[in-house]
Design goal:
mainly alpha; Arc Repressor Mutant, subunit A; Tetracycline Repressor, domain 2; 2 domains
């Protein structure tokens, strides 16, 4: 087993994301997380103190991954409205292609205020767009950014409801259009 190597915290987070995403907070086992990460179990306690501490770090890591993916989207040269549409679609695409991130975020009950991190790119765009007149001044950027995230998460949380809507891309595009129409003049 690898001991305190510089990448141990990164490997532990990746393993925790897999384990918590697959089995939930209660069902995940720290010995399995340590085994997946290739470290001894004591390193979980060294870096995160408790299973709960590791869980909160994994939730934060998932939210940061979602925000980071949005930050990496090519937005240069697009209007504010086109950027909003791309960000909302990008949220959905990230959640669809990262099922363990999605699972842990859906189960996260707001620990660590992870949603603040995940919605920041959309909220910032809405705020900036309001200042330049692209978006309605009677909306609350933070609230609408959270609604956009809820629309994306809703597809994965309520499969029986979303199943009859066709391909995932259709849900994504409809959600993006709903957000755009709600924020523009």
């Amino acid at each position: 087993m690898t001991h305190r190597s510089p990448d141990a915290p990164t490997r532990l987070l990746a393993a925790a994301l897999e384990e918590f995403g697959a089995h939930g907070r209660a069902g995940a086992r720290t010995d399995q997380i340590a085994r997946r990460a290739g470290v001894n179990k004591q390193l979980i306690h060294y870096y995160y103190r408790t299973k709960q501490g590791l869980y909160e770090a994994a939730v934060a890591h998932a939210a940061e991954g979602a925000a980071g993916a949005l930050g990496a989207l090519p937005l240069v040269g697009l209007t504010a409205v086109e950027r909003l549409r791309r960000l909302v679609r990008g949220q959905f695409d990230f959640l669809r292609t990262h099922p363990r991130h999605t699972a842990i975020l859906l189960a996260a009950d707001g620990e660590g205020r992870w949603a603040d991190v995940a919605v920041k790119p959309v909220a910032d765009l809405l705020r900036d767009g309001q200042a330049t007149g692209f978006f309605r001044d009677d909306i609350e950027p933070e609230v609408h950014a959270r609604l956009a995230l809820l629309l994306a998460l809703g597809y994965f949380a309520a499969r029986p409801v979303s199943a009859g809507w066709g391909a995932a891309e259709q849900w994504r595009d409809r959600a993006a259009e709903l957000v755009v129409r709600g924020c523009t003049w």
